[in-house]
Write a structure and sequence with these properties.
Blueprint: H1 6-42, H2 46-54, H3 59-104
Helix pairs in contact: 1-3
Length: about 100
Amino acid sequence: MTLERFSEKQRTAGTDTAKVRDRMNGLADRVQTQLDNLIAIVRSDPVFGSKFMDDAKGLKYQLEGAVEGTRTMAASWGKLSDGQFEAARNNEIEEKKREAQILEA
């Protein structure tokens, strides 16, 4: 039987949430690349492209909002991951203090 420490679970969770962050950033990068290509194509028609892309609620505005939203979510997952790693470190410090108290008693 192996004893698993809570801090190990927190580190595993931190690693997993960091992977989510990385995948979301990768997704945002790919969407941004496709958006840039689409913008170039649509802008090739000066009348239609300008109206379609530059309008305050046009395609460019909508898609850039989606990309930015994805990046914001990725940053949130990153902060969650950082918190999980920090909690693991703090938990280990507290475990060491408790062990020292037990040995002193």
